[in-house]
Specification:
mainly beta; single chain; 97 residues; 7-stranded antiparallel beta sheet; Elongation Factor Tu (Ef-tu), domain 3; globular; 7 strands
């Protein structure tokens, strides 16, 4: 099941924000967790921290820096494009007091 990019924003030239439609992930996400994504069937799997999530809208927000081939490829995608795999939420949630 592909995951559609709802919104893309360049924060600075090499740091980007993506809002991705992922209702199941958004519904269970908690602060401090992350996802593993793969852009396409041939791509490598990379972990990215969930920066924000909205269970009502079914979206997760990812912020990443272009460093290598995969993050540059991810940065080349636009709103309306899809990511092949988005697994999560993963990791232990952070405790916020």
């Amino acid at each position: 099941m592909p995951f559609t990019i709802i919104k893309k924003r360049e924060l600075v030239p090499t740091i980007h924000q993506l809002d991705v439609a992922a209702p199941r992930v958004a519904e269970k996400a908690m602060p401090g967790q992350f996802v593993i994504l793969r852009i396409d069937e041939c791509g490598e799997r990379i972990p990215l921290t969930i920066a924000d999530f909205d269970a009502a809208d079914g979206t997760v927000t990812l912020i990443f820096q272009e460093i290598g081939k995969t993050t540059r490829q991810l940065a080349s995608l636009d709103a309306g494009d899809s990511i092949a795999d988005l697994a999560g939420p993963l990791g232990r949630a952070s405790s916020i007091e």
